[in-house]
Amino acid sequence: MKRYGLSLLLVFIILFGWEIGARQYGKPFIIPSPVGVLVRLWELRDVLLLNHLPATLAVIIVGLLLSLVFGVCLSIWMHDSDIVRKAFFPIVIASQTIPVIALAPIFVLWFGYSIWGKVVVTVLITFFPITVNTFDGLRSADPHLKEVLQTMGASKRQIFFKVELPSALPHFYSGLKVAVTLSVIGAAIGEWLGADSGLGYFSRRMMTQFDGAGVFAPIVLLSLLGIILFILVGLLEKMTMKWRNEN
């Protein structure tokens, strides 16, 4: 608790200032107060938690799984082959220069209001940090240690699992922590632009009804979802990297 004391104090000050400012402004359909948002969140708890949260969570999970498979496999492939690295790495970089929010309506045209349009948006946002961080981690392996193992007759597979993979794990988890938070943003963007369910869709629907607190209520859930996913990745990192914690 002491570790996050200053952060919690800062958040409290911001929320307190927001509450006072919103009450003074007196237009909750534009700037709702934090208390008003919490009250509205409680009022909408059933429809949000039972209908829209599962839809958003499905997009996030599927998108993250695809990004993990695609990103890790591509990073290993680029690490093993200079030709693949020269061919794909510039494309990976260039993919992040395209504004995803401009592509989202196209995905709606292609996939309709199904889950796959939102999943593609999520993958485009999340695969980059996983791919680049894992690739950098594989390349950061100690070359002297690899040479020692080679002189001892170790195979390429043994070197990968004994040296390169442990070296890449910290970088991989750093990329995954970024990706899980971005996945929430990707899912919300996809739902905002074209969906019939999900927290992003519900927030947009409340905006058309000039319900300021209703707009913020699903945003609060999205923020909490991102925090929970980040914490889960941190716990998974500690469980799978006990050797690093012990050192």
UniProtKB/TrEMBL annotation:
Q: Which GO terms describe its cellular component?
A: plasma membrane
Q: Which Gene3D superfamilies match?
A: MetI-like
Membrane-related topology note:
Multi-pass membrane protein
Looking at the record, the residues that make up the ABC transmembrane type-1 domain are: 53-237
Q: What InterPro entries is this protein classified in?
A: MetI-like, MetI-like_sf
The subcellular localization recorded is: Cell membrane
Bilayer-crossing residues are 55-77, 89-113, 119-138, 175-195, 215-236
Grouped into one coarse class, the protein's main location is membrane
Name used for this protein in its record: ABC transporter permease
PANTHER family per the UniProt record, alphabetical: ABC TRANSPORTER PERMEASE PROTEIN HI_0355-RELATED, ALKANE SULFONATE ABC TRANSPORTER-RELATED, MEMBRANE SUBUNIT
Protein species of origin: Siminovitchia acidinfaciens
Task: Decide whether keyword RNA-binding is in the record.
Answer: no
Keyword annotations: Cell membrane, Membrane, Transmembrane, Transmembrane helix, Transport
